[in-house]
Structure formats: C-alpha cells, structure tokens
Amino acid sequence: MIANTKGSYRILIAEDEPLIMRNIATKIENATNKFEILYAENGKEALDVIEALQPQVLFTDIQMPQMNGIELIEQVSRKYPRIQIVVISGHDEFDYAQQALRCGARDFLLKPLDTDDIRKTLSRIFAQLDQEKASFEKEQVHSALQTGEIVQQNIALQDSVFQLFLIQIGHLANASYSSGLAGFFDNLWLQVNRSKAIPTLLGDVEDWWLVDQLPFHGKYLVIKTEEAVIQQPLVCADALLAAVREQVEPYSVTIVHAAEPAKLDRLWSTSQGLKVAMEKGVALGRSAILTNTGKARDLPSAWIDPNTQHKLVSFIQGNKRVNFNKELRSLFEHWTEQAYPQKWIEKKLQHLIQIVHQQAIHFSDEEIFHLEYDMLNTLYTAADFPSIFERVLTLLENTAFLNEEHLSEGAEELTHSIESYLKTNFAHPITLEDIAAKFNFDSSYLTKIFKKYKQMTPIKYLISLRMDEAKRLIQQHPELSFKEIGAIVGYPDSHYFSRIFKNMTGQNLSDYSEGMKLQGE
C-alpha cells in the first residue's frame, strides 16, 4: 500500500502483478494529476485499504489470489456504494467483465491499457466525483448552518473555515405572513445576477453557497476558505453591498458579516448571531453594513409618548383631520431622520393603531386586526420610507375619521356593486384602498355609504365572507389544516387568521372544529 501522487481524489489499484500495477499507475499519472494513487495486491488487502483510506475510485483486476475481482466488486458495491469501480480485464476475461458490471462496476478497460482510454474514463469519473462532492458539501453546509447538525464527518470541510454574511434585500418579513410575500422576495432575488454579484468578489475562492434564511427571506452567503487566505470581511461586505444593491434598486440591502471566520461546527451559532444583529439593525429604506459584534443601539420606548397620544386623541375627538395628519407626519419624519430599526417602528405603528382603535368605536376588533395585517404587508414590501408612511397614514386616517358626508345619488347601487365585488374576490388580498381604486371613490365615502346600507363597513363585510367560508371548509373538509384553510380564505398568516376567527365567532379554531365533529356524530 503506497501512495505516490497527490491529487483531489484517491484511486486504489488492486492488481497482484507488480509490473502490471506499476504500468497502470504510470498511465494514470500520464493521463491526469488529479488523483492520489494507492495500491493493493489482492482483494482482501484492497478492502483493508478502502476501510482505512476511503478512496473514491477502484481499478481492479479480475484474477487475484485470496479474493478475486468479482468478489471484491460485490463487497465494495454493497459496503461502499459511492466508490466508482473500473474493471481491468483481458479479451479472454470478457465474460468476467460483464459479470463485474452486473455486480456494480461502472466501467471496464481492456488490457493492454491505452492512455487515451484511461484519460477519458478518469475525466468522466472526475466530473462525476466533483458533482457529488459539491452536492455533498452543499448538504453539509446547509445542515450545519440551519440546524447545527453535521450530516456526516468530512475531513475537507472540517479542515476549512467559513466566512459568513447575511444578506437582506428589502425589509424583514416573516415567511409565514403571506403566501404572496414569498413570491415577492423570490422575484427580488431573481434580479440578482449571482455570477456578477458574488464570484467576482472572491478572487480564487471557488466554494461558496447561498442558503435561505427563514423566517425573513434573507440569504446567508457562506464562503469556504483557508485561514491563510481569509479576506477582510468588511472589504468583502462593501463590494457585495454595492453589487447587490445596483441590481435591486430602489430596494435597500442590509448585510451583516461575522467578524471572525467559523469552523463547520460553529456555523449555526454564528448564523444566529447574524440573525439577531439583522433583526436589531435593519432600518426601513436604508442600506447598511452591520457586524454581529456591534453594540446594540440604545432606543427610546417603543410606545407613543403620553403627550403625543393626548394630541392625537384630541384631534380625533375634535374631528381635526388636518391636525392629525400633520402630527403623524412630524412623528414619521423624526423616525426617518433617526433611522430607527424596522422592528422598533413596527411596535410604534401597532401602538398607533391601538390609540386610533380606542377612539374609532365604529370599527370592530377584527377590522383592526385586518388593518394591522394590511399595514405590515405595506411595511414589508415597500421600497422606501416615504411610501410606507404615506400608505400607513391613509390607513390610520380612514380608521380615525369616518366623515358624515352627503351621500350622492346611486349610493345604494354602488353599495351593491361593492358587495358583488367582495363576494367574488374575497379570497384575494383586498384593502379598503383597493376597493376605492376599483370604484373611483374616496375610501372614507365608500365606508360611509356601505355602512349605511349594509350596517357594516366594507372590511367587516369582507371578513364575514372569509369567516363564513372558513367555517364551511372546517365542516366539509376536515382533512384540511387550519393553516391551509386560512390561506384559502385570504389569511395565509395563521396567527392573524386565528385571531380574527375567534373575534368573529367567539371560539378558537380547534374548539369550533371539535364542535362541528360532535354535531356530525
């Protein structure tokens, strides 16, 4: 058992004739330098070498002492199915060669060996091994990064270190929130020419992976490298940000990089640090580079301060829409200037909805949940800060101020048209602004006339349609999960679906389902 060349993979030659063995090795060396060559003089010794050194390729003669080539091939195919087996045979052993192929050999070469034949065979094998290696390493890296589990020990990966970056295009959006969000973020990532944005930044580094980061639709960039050639992460992050941002404008890009490279078994814990830094650092509409070791920013309370609350309540009670609008704009402009993190602003907006809801007594709890749902969808998918707040401002104003406007002629007919539209499209994403755009009327006016004739707002009517369909599906299709039913009726986020269902029916989903089962018995 002697190794006489260095290469990416190992070939074991099992041959009992030393001169023939040396001749085979020489021709392999002349054909390629990509394999390290190992030797065994019989089948039994070959099995010992395979167990000890795990070669990827076996060249074996058929006629050998102690254990012949057929027996060797049968055992290797059973114990080590990933090994590529090539049979070396003479013309008078052709029947044995066919038997070897049936037992698991991938190819056979006739004696005397031709260098061109060996080169073609090894070229095919090398390409297949490279493909299998890439697939295996990808599986290893994905598992280590997403679960912390090492699927199988791998010397090459264990001896490497990994630079880790977390890339977020746009804003943070929970993967379970809406089925449409997945497509939205997928389309953003499709705009990124990865062959331009990533490999050109890495120099000679060939092994890198993009791994999905859930629940926020980001991606980890994992770069396998050696400690001696580690690039400065900040330099790489700067170039990466510029390359990705150029391709996804006007959407912002946020990158968090690990300050130090990590071994395979530390990828998961490092990724969690990047995730936390991303959640704390993403600012709406602003691109940035962050690090997982940076000190968290000191933030003021996420609740609206009492003085601002008092003014907003006074404006609502006094029907001073202009003042209300001006106060919110001032608030939003301050948040913009300070570049507060997205998650902090989400809490602020949710508190604003609570304040408005306490004054807008004509809106039910489920309508407010629907409002929050619309607001977050706007926040997740908007490209910049101003467009987010223009949309949110409209939502809040339409909730806080339901003006007693004069009803025009045709209001009842318009109400019937809106009703028909909602009945036909209730399973699709619909906002009050969508309805207003559809019928070319102000949203406050539509709410007013619809409530006059239907005794509920358009959004309350939309929710009722969805809940009626949900109850029907629960009763008639018990095989469907609550998440599936929620998605069917227009609420892909199971959290909001369950909240709205309970407020509308007075029961949670499980209790309602059990009640339907008991009635059917």
UniProtKB/TrEMBL annotation:
<dbReference type="InterPro" id="IPR009057">
    <property type="entry name" value="Homeodomain-like_sf"/>
</dbReference>
<feature type="domain" description="HTH araC/xylS-type">
    <location>
        <begin position="416"/>
        <end position="515"/>
    </location>
</feature>
<dbReference type="InterPro" id="IPR018062">
    <property type="entry name" value="HTH_AraC-typ_CS"/>
</dbReference>
<keyword id="KW-0805">Transcription regulation</keyword>
<keyword id="KW-0238">DNA-binding</keyword>
<dbReference type="InterPro" id="IPR018060">
    <property type="entry name" value="HTH_AraC"/>
</dbReference>
<feature type="domain" description="Response regulatory">
    <location>
        <begin position="10"/>
        <end position="126"/>
    </location>
</feature>
<dbReference type="InterPro" id="IPR051552">
    <property type="entry name" value="HptR"/>
</dbReference>
<dbReference type="InterPro" id="IPR001789">
    <property type="entry name" value="Sig_transdc_resp-reg_receiver"/>
</dbReference>
<keyword id="KW-0597">Phosphoprotein</keyword>
<protein>
    <recommendedName>
        <fullName>Response regulator</fullName>
    </recommendedName>
</protein>
<dbReference type="Pfam" id="PF00072">
    <property type="entry name" value="Response_reg"/>
</dbReference>
<dbReference type="InterPro" id="IPR011006">
    <property type="entry name" value="CheY-like_superfamily"/>
</dbReference>
<dbReference type="Pfam" id="PF12833">
    <property type="entry name" value="HTH_18"/>
</dbReference>
<keyword id="KW-0902">Two-component regulatory system</keyword>
<feature type="modified residue" description="4-aspartylphosphate">
    <location>
        <position position="61"/>
    </location>
</feature>
<keyword id="KW-0963">Cytoplasm</keyword>
<keyword id="KW-0804">Transcription</keyword>
